[in-house]
Amino acid sequence: MKKYVVVSMLLGLLTAVAFAGALTTSDREEPMRPARANPPYPGATMSNTNNPVEALPEVQALRVEQKTALARGDEPGARAIETQIQQFYLDVTPPQSPVGHPVAVSEPQGGRPDLVPDVVIHPSTVNGTGADYEAVGTMWAVCSPLDSSVRVYNSTDAGQTWNYFTGFGWSSPCQFGRVQVVVGIGDSNFVHIFALLPFQDGDLIDVIYLHDGTYAGWAAVKSGVDTVSDFSVCRDNISPYYLHAVATNMLRGGLGTVSKLRSQDFGRTWAQTQTWADGSNPSISTGAGTGVYYTSAYATWYPGQLAVVYSRSYGGTWSETDITPDTFSVVAPVVAAAFTVPDSEAVLWWAWHHTAGSIIEVTACYSTDGGATFSTPAPTANLPTGIQSWVDLKNYRSTGNTYVNLSYFSIESDFRRVFRQFASAGNPGVWSDTLRINNEEAFRARELTPWLNYSPGGPGSGAGCVFRHYAAPYNFCWNSPWTTAVAEPVAPRPVRFGLVPSLVRGTLTLAPAATLMDAVGRRVMNLAPGANDVSHVAPGVYFVEAAAGQPAARVVIQR
User: Fold this and answer.
1) What confidence tens digit (pLDDT) does each residue in 39-89 have?
2) What is residue 47's predicted lDDT score, i.e. its pLDDT?
3) What pLDDT score was predicted for residue 559?
4) 534 and 402 in one domain?
5) How does 153-176 read in b/e, with b if 16+ C-beta sit within 10 Å?
6) Domain match, 445 and 342 both
7) Which residues constitute the domain of residue 436?
8) Are residues 282 and 385 in the same domain?
9) Which of 445, 479, 513 is the last residue of a domain?
10) 382 and 509 share a domain?
């Protein structure tokens, strides 16, 4: 029972007006929301098994076997059991087919500039965009132009140039909306293109290609009446991989029931394994092991609350902890885990933008115990008051890597920027200084979120972003700290340095506090006394300046 109800029962002599005036916004009783399987109040935690399949005796027996297998470290055995359970899901929710089928399209004509400050990927207006990357260093980008097609590009040179990979339209011409790309691993390293069709209030499809561009088929992830208006997709990082999707529909009824779907056969069939109520802008991601993480804002019940849901069994069974950062609206939360094992000890981050009148800012919290408890949410950037929105958050898929990157739009002084920051498991509440990614202004929209993309093995660590230009011709573009990124305006300083450079790999140890600068005198990061982790900084020549006017030490950062 909420605080003011208890007080009013004990102190009935207080008038309603006097009592209301003494309350803070967070004290006021929240509206009653419909009964659901999820926790009924902030801070509650429970196991979520609200799919009727989980009540079947055969599935319950398999869950016991799976738990035993995981306890003894038999992950292949646990995955095999999950595959058996998946068949029960498929028997309950057989695959459906949307209206129509993919149709091949040709490479867009007109070409791309060889290189501009923002590297152009697709030379025309797009409705939606997405990005993914491979551990071998190939980056992928997808977009849905206005010509009723979906176009896929890749880059093998860390984003300097982008090559047309393939594209498709639909047998019934339509404007595609939200799109995403997920690239597989291992023997089944298919390229999965997820697209939202406008038919039947939104059909979510997975169109599959081989790495040589050969069309390999397609499947309906979720289709039929009242299906999808928003979605998020990913794969896990164990071979053979599972594909994971969450989909919601805000077009009917307003409650936005979120469906969790999964494919264990590389996109050929999809089973609905879970549902949650009242979700908007859903997001799903995975960790290094068995962990799968879902989050969303509440569409109607609690504007200031977000669902924090995690599974440590490949998306089979779930636990949820709802958290309430404040009374302001939470919008489009995202989640990522440090790429470490075990999942129960992985550091997790959640980030979102929330609105408080005219102020919209990016906020984050973290968990150091795999999702059991959470830090107090706090803004990530020391930026002027303005509009910060549409966040992406990604881990670096390299076992043992403790970093995540964060990107978002920001509008100050009428200039539309894309910012990128990073944090690490060693100090998860501290975000790096902001780095502006785009050169020309970027267009701000949910479907055009500045998606992060890493280039493992490339010339720089950290991540760059894909985005769409704000002004004509509205190009779909890429930029990164190692491509042609534009640093935030800082007056360049003349640099004097010693004669003997130091070679640094991973850690830079100092006696006094100092500043790390690049070759033209721009600040890269502040350095504290003692050991400083510089593994995220691109290899190259840098200067360490301990005090203004003093000679700077030259360091060469290597991998």
Assistant:
1) 333 333 334 445 678 888 888 899 899 889 888 888 888 888 888 888 888
2) 40
3) 59
4) no
5) bbbbebbbebebbbbbbbeeeeeb
6) yes
7) 102-479
8) yes
9) 479
10) no
Domain of 383, CATH number, reads 2.120.10.10
* pLDDT higher than 50, residue 11: no
Burial level of 430, CB count in 10 A (0-12/13-18/19+)? exposed
Torsion of CA 131, 137, 138, 142, to 10 degrees: 10
Q: What is the pLDDT of residues 493-525, one digit of tens each?
A: 333 333 344 556 666 676 666 777 665 456 677
The predicted-structure confidence for 190-205, as pLDDT tens digits, reads as follows: 999 999 888 877 889 9
Q: Has residue 22 been placed in a domain?
A: no
Q: Which of 479, 510, 538 is the last residue of a domain?
A: 479
Domain count, the chain: 2
pTM above 0.85, yes or no: no
Same domain, residue pair 308 and 408: yes
Q: Letter for the amino acid at 139?
A: M
Residues sharing a CB contact under 8 Å with residue 214, sequence separation 6 or more, in sequence order = none
Report CA Rg, the chain: 24
CA 141, CA 195: separation in Å to the nearest integer?
13
Residue 218 token pair? 């397609």
Quote the strand ranges of 50-190, DSSP E.
102-104, 119-122, 126-133, 139-145, 150-155, 163-170, 179-183
